Amino acid sequence: MWMAGYDSRVHPVEGTLHELWAKALVLEDSKGKQAVLVTIDVLGVPKRISDLIRDELHARFGLNKSQIILNSSHTHSGPVLENALTSIYPFDDVHREQISEYSRLFITHIISLVSKAFENIIPVNLYSQNGVARFQVNRRNNSEAVLDEQIELKGPNDYAVPVIKVESISGETLAIVFGYACHNTVLDIYKWSGDYAGFAQIELENEYPGSIAMFFQGAGGDQNPLPRRTVALAKQYGKTLAAAVGSVLEEEMNPIEAVLTTNYSEIKLHLEKPPSEEELNNIVETSTSFEGRCAEHLLKRIRSGEFFDLTYDYPLQVWHLGSQPIISMGGEVVIEYAVKLKQIFGKDLFIMAYSNDLMGYIPSAVILHEGGYEGDSSQMVYGLPGKWKEGIEEQILQEVVKLAEEAGVQKKVST
Fold first, then answer.
1. Residue 157 contacts by C-beta under 8 Å, 6 or more apart in sequence?
2. How many CB atoms lie within 10 A of CB 102?
3. Which of 98, 150, 185, 375 fits as disulfide partner to 363, beta carbons 3.0 to 4.6 Å?
């Protein structure tokens, strides 16, 4: 199959560096309220596939969308899924059929996985705490080409390593849920892997035998692991992240009460009008990269008379797990959202981006104004007819605050 994430790849996968995983954690509080977190080693789960999975989980277990988080690690060494960036890859009809077949199997396997988790519910204690790791680099403010010449890093960052420990009543570590806000893009080779996050999970499962380590991606839309491009570095960052998690697990953590509140909404984000045919033709004629293929694809859609809905139903979600607030957001959310949400709700907030849908980058107001890849050209990569209109940051933050307050999450008190 073809691998997802890089337009520079010119042929399908050649082998496996380490296995790809989907892992599920079902939670049930003292009153029987349930929720499920699924972490998956893929670039992202597009809306159509996410909706099919969540609809089936609703039919089987009565879970609504507020009770389900499907988080993607955003590894660039996983398989292409249907309806996800498919216009950037130069594959043929045979590969398209492979992708369709795999996507159907993917849905079946995720539902089966969650079903097995429901069959194995046992009493546990939960704990949460933040650690720290510092290999993320803001790629908009630091040049990868001259990084070794810089004496300081620039740009907003969030080095937090959020951790949830699932412990048996007898004190055995059963599961370790942990996150980091950084692209899984150390590797660009032709071998399946979960990248640095995959190595971190392997390291933790070796260190805590019998446990399941589950990685979730944070608001790392503009954060890269740098330097990169070698297996040795992917292993190094994996060990660094695992060590940060291990440090949290070995210290005193905050106990989580057996009370669960979940909240969810989809808000309509607005898009600008598509580029003109003249502008798209110019891109096709001058670009030799993915941008040319994307422009050509959009041109075909325009010429076929396709109607473009210039709004997008964007998913937002809040879990209040005991006193631990968790916010999940769709798309490639940039780090400024994490910074601003923590200013509102405090540094202990956990953020899961790349959740339930991958429709494109979610730029901050600053990045949208500046343009560049995350603010402008990337939208075409995802098949959106235009870039986001100004005002989306304020719209998203207002809705998150509303959902959080309804779930009982307290704002940070100024002193």
1. 136, 137, 138, 223, 335
2. 16
3. 375
Q: What is the DSSP letter of 107?
A: H
CA distance 198 to 399: 33
233 neighbors 227 (Cβ within 8 angstroms): yes
Q: Say how far apart CA 145 and CA 223 lie, in whole Å.
A: 15
Question: What integer pLDDT is reported at residue 414 of this predicted model?
Answer: 58
Q: What are phi and psi of 160, to 5 degrees?
A: -65, 145
Query: What pLDDT, in 10s, does the model give residues 115-136?
Result: 999 999 999 999 999 999 999 9
Name the 3-class secondary structure at 313. Answer: strand
- CB neighbourhood size of 318 (10 A): 26
Q: What is the SS3 assignment for 70?
A: strand
**Cis peptide before 325, with omega less than 30 degrees from 0?**
no
- pTM for the structure as a whole: 0.96
At residue 230, the pLDDT reads 98
State the Cα–Cα distance between residues 207 and 251, nearest whole angstrom.
16
Buried-state track 105-121, b at ≥16 Cβ within 10 A, e below 16: ebbeebbebbeebbeee
> What pLDDT was estimated at residue 314?
98
Token pair for residue 299? 């041109």
- Alpha-helical (H) ranges within 119-166 are none
Q: What is the pLDDT of residues 202-219, one digit of tens each?
A: 999 999 999 999 999 999
Read off φ and ψ for residue 344, nearest 5 degrees. -80, -45
Cβ neighbours of 251 (radius 10 Å): 9
304 Cβ neighbours under 8 A, 6+ residues apart? none
Orientation angle between helical segments 335-345 and 392-406, nearest 10 degrees: 40
Q: What is the DSSP string of 367-409?
A: HHHH-HIIIIIHHHHTT-SSPBPTTHHHHHHHHHHHHHHHTTP
Strand duo 34-40 + 68-72: pairing? parallel
Low-confidence ranges of the chain (pLDDT < 70): 86, 413-415
The tokens for 357 are: 């849908």
Bridge partners (DSSP) listed for residue 269: 312
DSSP 41-80: SSS---HHHHHHHHHHHHHHH---GGGEEEEE--BTTSB-
Give the torsion through C-alpha atoms of 162, 23, 267, 382, to 10 deg.
100
Burial (CB count within 10 angstroms: exposed 0-12, middle 13-18, buried 19+), residue 122: exposed
